[in-house]
Design a protein that fits this description.
Pfam families: Amino_oxidase
CATH topology of the largest domain: FAD/NAD(P)-binding domain
Strand order of the largest sheet: 8-7-16-17-18-15-19
Cofactor: FAD
CATH class of the largest domain: Alpha Beta
Catalytic activity: protoporphyrinogen IX + 3 O2 = protoporphyrin IX + 3 H2O2
Number of helices: 19
Family: Belongs to the protoporphyrinogen/coproporphyrinogen oxidase family. Protoporphyrinogen oxidase subfamily.
Keywords: FAD, Flavoprotein, Heme biosynthesis, Oxidoreductase, Porphyrin biosynthesis
């Protein structure tokens, strides 16, 4: 039986520990899970105010519709969280209404099928014409391509500018001219390769295929039939972290260690010695879910591996939570709005939290989360260490006042600067991963890599990749 060490107690590390415990009861002797912070969760942290208002520091919803999304639902069900779920279906107004900022005006993205046949600002053509272009466009035999170039080639430059540009800022706080379509949106890359078209690749049959492995689960079946788009929990996603950590702890043979930053990994004689502050632990295998740039210096004895890990960059994002006493959103009910990179704004986008989940409101009728900076943070503000909370708060409140034409002041706010929180899958990211995997294999390292730095930064991706990694290791025993 194997003893395992897991670095990082965010969603990836906790999920890995959970799957090792539940799927490998006869193969896993003991698990040591170490995190440098005083509590688990990583970027998933929830502030709950006494009056019931909820503020998510990082991710606030989990998407559905992919294998990773359905797997996350199955996990929630296994953790007895089914009754705690707040879903948003395809028919929910939030799923239908998304806005982009163009020329200082919030414009709705077309959703109504009847509007597909006429031009809708800011697009210069009807949506149906873009669809026909996409279907007619031949596949390109490219190993990789920027998201912007891919969208321009297959659909049109308007769509690249007004849809994919802000979408990449919302998902990765990154520049679609730098990000890799192969690594950021693998389903699009594969749809072109396999089906010759995104439209054909995103057909109903593909949706069935994504759910097939999990459809026996009642919760997954419900989500599939009702076409859930996303979900959260009744007091925020912190519930998911609490349930995972609690379940792992209850099942025993696991040591959950807080305030333990790994300082050294020594691979010797089929064992790994993990040193972290006052901890000195010998294990058979290590799963690392810490960011690649944090792992890199721990592997300095393997310079090619360390350099490849260091080359995966990440960006800083400020999250400003604002709560207003009155409804300042008005008729623009929706998920929120995104800001394209060519607009004169320091804001990446704003999520209308009170519209998405009014169940999580407190005394205020409007809750907003303003995202600032990302790939452009240092260009806008300089050294992140020198930026004051007051500066970030001012940027957010001025943005809200301008967009919603209000003089109201927030009755409550919270400002967080999340350093290096979102990895950037730039062009050639898949080649970095190949180099990393080859170096681990060449040096016979008892090491598996999980977490947002590698194959998907979304919460469902992190959970699913942790599961796959745990399953692969268990098969090797």
């Amino acid at each position: 039986m194997a003893t395992v060490g897991i670095l990082g107690g965010g969603i990836s590390g906790l999920s890995c520990a959970y799957y090792l415990k539940t799927l490998g009861q006869s193969k896993i002797k003991y698990i040591f899970l170490l995190d440098k912070n005083p509590k688990f969760g990583g970027w998933i942290q929830t502030t709950r105010f006494p009056d019931g208002a909820v503020f998510e520091h990082g991710p606030r919803t989990l998407r559905v519709g992919t294998k990773a999304g359905y797997n996350a639902l199955e996990l929630a069900d296994r953790l007895a969280l089914t009754s705690r779920i707040l879903p948003i279906t395809r028919e929910h107004p939030i799923a239908k209404n998304n806005f982009i900022l163009v020329n200082n005006e919030l414009l709705p993205l077309p959703r109504d099928v009847f509007k597909f046949f006429r031009k809708s600002p800011p697009f210069s053509k009807s949506i149906i014409s873009y669809i026909f272009k996409e279907i007619r466009t031949k596949s390109a035999n490219l190993d990789d391509e920027s998201v912007y170039d891919f969208a321009t080639r297959r659909i049109g430059e308007d769509v690249a500018r007004y849809a994919f540009d802000p979408m990449c800022r919302g998902i990765a706080a990154g520049d679609c001219r730098e990000l890799s379509v192969r690594s950021m949106f693998p389903f699009m890359y594969e749809a072109e390769k396999k089906h010759g078209s995104l439209i054909k690749g995103l057909s109903k049959s593909q949706r069935i295929e994504e759910a097939a492995d999990f459809i026996k689960n009642d919760l997954v079946l419900t989500a599939y039939k009702q076409i859930w788009r996303m979900w959260t929990l009744k007091t925020g996603l912190g519930e998911l972290i609490d349930a995972l950590a609690g379940t792992i702890d209850e099942r025993g043979k696991t040591d959950l260690i807080f305030d333990a930053k790994c300082s050294s990994l020594i691979f010797k004689d089929d064992k790994v010695v993990v040193e972290a502050d006052n901890e000195h632990i010998e294990v058979d295998h290590v799963f690392s879910s810490i960011p690649s740039q944090e792992l890199s210096p721990l592997l300095s004895e393997y310079p090619l591996l360390a350099d490849s890990l260091k080359a995966i960059s990440s960006v800083d994002v400020a999250v400003v939570y604002l709560e207003y006493e009155n409804d300042i959103i008005g008729e623009k009910t929706g998920f929120g709005y995104l800001v394209p990179s060519f607009e004169d704004s320091k804001v990446l986008g704003i999520v209308f939290d009170s519209c998405c989940f009014p169940e999580l409101n407190g005394r205020g009728k409007t809750r907003l989360s303003c995202m600032i900076g990302g790939r452009w943070f240092k260009d806008l503000f300089g050294d992140p260490e020198t930026v004051s909370e007051g500066t970030l708060l001012q940027v957010a409140t001025e943005e809200v006042s301008k967009r919603f034409n209000t003089a109201d002041k927030p009755i409550r706010h919270k400002v967080l600067l999340q350093r290096n929180c979102i990895p950037q899958y730039v062009l050639g990211h898949h080649l970095k991963l190949q180099n990393i995997e080859e170096e681990i294999k060449k040096n016979n390292l008892n090491l598996s890599l999980i977490g947002a730095s590698y194959k998907g930064a979304g919460v469902p991706d992190c959970i699913y990749n942790a599961r796959l990694s745990a399953e692969n290791y268990l098969k090797s025993l």
